[in-house]
Amino acid sequence: MKWVVQGWRRWLAAWVLVGVVVAAAGAKHAAARRGHDEVHPTVEYTFGERIRFVARFSGERALQQVTLFYRPGGSWQGTLHAAMTLAPDGTATFVHDLKKSPLPPFSTIFYWFRVRRSDGTAYTTPSFSFVLTDNRFAWQHLSEGPFEVWWHEGDDVLAQQVVDAAAAGLARAENLWLAPAPEHVRIYVYADPRVLQQTLGAKGWVAGHASPAYGALFLALPPGPLQESETRRLVPHELAHDLLYRQVGDAGYHNLPVWLNEGLASLTELRPNPDYAVALKRAAAQDRLLPLASLCDTFPTDASDALLAYAEATSFTAFLLHRYGRNALHTLVAAYGQGVDCESGVQHVLGRSLWRLNRDWEAATFHRGWWYPIWEKARPWVGVFAVLLASLFLSAWLARRPTPSPDTP
Ligand SMILES: [Zn+2]
């Protein structure tokens, strides 16, 4: 609630102060030579609320319709468009509602106009751009090596801890699976996970952190006694996702099995999650481990199963690293990045099916014999087999029993 009050104050201040004014492209006669009117675009926004696009056209001829096209850079799918409201003086306006349709924070938004004049002629303007900063907060900034940290609450110590965790996480990722060295990583630290989730328009993002598809890392590190340990966990975890994304690209990243993506990210954390070992032990004792094949495309949404899925992915990936080494894991990531499916990737690179690897991992981790998964698979059929066998014996016994001779009078 405290944040809401502060947020509104900042919101109002930001609304007054904000405004990214982009100079019109080209000189007036240059525009005229290309058949364009001279265009003067202005963008004002309050992050999380709205973006107001305004364009003034200085041509002689009357305008009939102006359409705005806009899209964030990066891996954003598709281009947004809207018919602008035209004023008699030739000013066109459109307001984008960021509450209904959030756009990625700190992304570069490219926009341009398609103009139709009343005399039937039409043209498309050059493209303009602005950076959609989250201007509800006063951001501070620290840069060290490839890492650039932005934060809005707390002092320099927090930023330094983030940079240190990122540097240690990078060294760990390079060591674990020969992750690529990034040139530049932007890290945005929010103080409140709920604000971050709302900022990103995220639904069900458990830890309140972002996808690397946005081209930056977004973390929620609330002030308090857990902040430092959470920094050492979350920063390397998100960095690992970013490095995997850099290694195999957008399409390749989305083809990685979730168990491998989350397994490598969790292994990169500097502070292992103690809940994982507990969840694994309990699930193994209760015979309710999730098959690895069920963790290829997605993780369960139920909180306790999701924790178990992370625990299994981490333990299984550690097992693969221990058995096959980092070169093999690097090649495995690259193979999935090329588009092979979950089962074929391990078969091609490690020479073993996922089911066999699952069996080997369980045997090594829970000290189960090689026969255990076979028994598990066979168990439902054992009852059926027993009933069949019993009925066979019964019919054999009945058949061999001497038939009583009919009574003779
Ligand atoms: Zn993750």
Describe this structure in words.
- The protein has 12 helices and 14 strands.
- It has 409 residues and is of the alpha+beta class.
- It has 3 domains: 15-131, Immunoglobulins (Immunoglobulin-like, Sandwich); 137-250, Collagenase ColT, N-terminal domain (Glutaredoxin); 256-376, no CATH class.
- A 5-stranded antiparallel β-sheet has the order 1-2-3-7-6. Strands 4, 5, 8, 9 and 10 form a 5-stranded antiparallel β-sheet that branches.
- α3 (156-177) links the parallel β12 (147-151) and β13.
- The radius of gyration is 30 Å and the shape is elongated.
- Zinc ion binds next to α5 and α6.
- Zinc ion (ZN) binds next to α5 and α6.
| pLDDT averaged residue by residue | 85
| Spatial strand arrangement across the major sheet | 1-2-3-7-6
Q: Could you give the count of β-strands?
A: 14
Q: Using only CA atoms, what is the Rg?
A: 30 Å
User: Which strand-content bin applies to the residues?
Assistant: 15-25%
Helix content: 40-55%
Query: Could you give the distance between the termini?
Result: 102 Å
Element pattern in H and E = HEHEEEEEEEEEEEHEHEHHHHHHHH
How many individual domains? 3
Low-confidence residue ranges: 1-27
User: Tally the helices: what do you get?
Assistant: 12
Biggest sheet features:
5 strands, antiparallel
SS-based structural class?
alpha+beta
Shape: elongated
Which ligands, by name, code or SMILES, are bound? zinc ion
